[in-house]
Amino acid sequence: MRRRRASDRKTRVTVFVALAANILIAAAKAIGGLVAHSPALLSEAAHSVADSLNEIFLLAALHRSRRPADRDHPFGYGKERFFWSLLAAVGIFVMGGCFSFFQGFQALKSGEQESRSGYVAGFAVLGVALLMDGLSLLRALHQVHRQHGSAAEGLRDPALRTVVAEDSTAVLGVVLAIVGMALHMVTGAVVWEASASFAIGVLLVYVAYRLGRDARGRLIGQAADPELSHRIRALLQAQPEIDSVEELLTMQLGLDSTLVAARVDLVPGLDSEEVEDVAVCIKRSVAHTVPQADQIFLDITDAPTRAEARRKGREDGPAATGEHGGA
Questions:
Q1: How many Cα neighbours within 13 Å face the side chain of 124?
Q2: Can you state the angle between helices 80-91 and 158-187, rounded to 10 degrees?
């Protein structure tokens, strides 16, 4: 728990850095886009505005997901992160992607000729934006590797994953805007800058789809990572009191919270008190070995009865079927 709180504080700082950068960048891009009448630059301004609102969503997720479990939510509020990440994905799609497509169509429709002086200011704005977005991205990637050791593990946090995705697309979007503006200036054809707006829109729609799909899967009850499920199953099967693991179900409740429901067949010969003690010991062993499994439910099958039934079936089977010399 203490480690999770420290991780949340670092993630909050990363989100604040991204938010401050995006607010400044959005204002600069909007002013530069209006001065240069650049659709690509205005698309990037909308992109930064969407990112700023999304960072506010992520801060809300970090705050609300830490609330303790209560009567209405007995498994806690860990899925708040996934819900707010889904809203962030919708924001990227609507405010970023759709507006970029709109700017591209407007550029093709109007075919305006922009002044070179305005574009010089636009290039200056994009250069500053590229620097600030790059620094924000480096900050997020540094936290991922320092805090979790690997990118795959660090990007389990939807808030951190969203910041990395936003900063990465922001850097690529700025590069696309620079290329589109440069080709427009050289050739005088607005189609290059319109194409840059379309490319930025496609990029944002793709990122929104990936983030939204991941958040949706976790919200509707996604199972734990296969490796974690295999560890839990192997741990249960290694218990001397368990004869077999009939079924194992898992569901992610939060970043470090997993529900585990298992139906196990115990070895024969245990009375009711022994079964209860064994169940408690098994739960403690799983929780100690796999800290993420903080909600564990065991369904103990009637092992002695099943074993006796199998033995009885083997004993009665040959006579009943007439095998081995039946009449």
A1: 11
A2: 10
**31 touches 174 (CB < 8 A):** no
98-129, pLDDT tens digit by residue? 888 888 888 888 765 544 556 777 888 888 88
Q: ∠ CA 44-52-174 to the nearest 5 degrees? A: 25
Instruction: Answer yes or no: are the C-beta atoms of 286 and 303 closer than 8 Å.
Output: no
Residue 148 binned pLDDT confidence (cut-offs 50, 70, 90): low
Percentages (nearest 5) of helix, strand, coil residues in the chain: 70, 10, 20
Give the Cα separation of 63 and 205 in Å (integer).
27
Give me the half-sphere count of Cα atoms (radius 13 Å) on the Cβ side of residue 106.
Answer: 13
In angstroms, the CA 249 to CA 207 distance is 30
* Residues 63, 228, 221: CA angle, nearest 5 degrees: 55
The owner of tokens 């690529």 is 172
Residue 268 CB neighbours (<10 A):
14
* CB atoms inside a 10 Å sphere around CB 317: 10
Using CA atoms, how far apart are residues 263 and 260, in angstroms rounded to an integer? 10
CA dihedral 315, 317, 318, 320 (to 10 degrees): 120
Q: In what order do the strands lie in the sheet with 242-254?
A: 242-254, 257-266, 295-300
CB contact set of 135 (below 8 Å; sequence gap of 6+): 21
pTM for this entry: 0.70
What is the residue whose two structure tokens read 């992160």? 81
In the numeric block, the tokens 């067949």 are attached to: 265
Kind of pairing, strands 295-300 and 257-266?
parallel
Q: Please check whether residue 38 is in contact with residue 119, taking contact to mean a CB–CB distance below 8 angstroms.
A: yes
CA–CA–CA angle 83, 138, 30 (5° rounding):
70
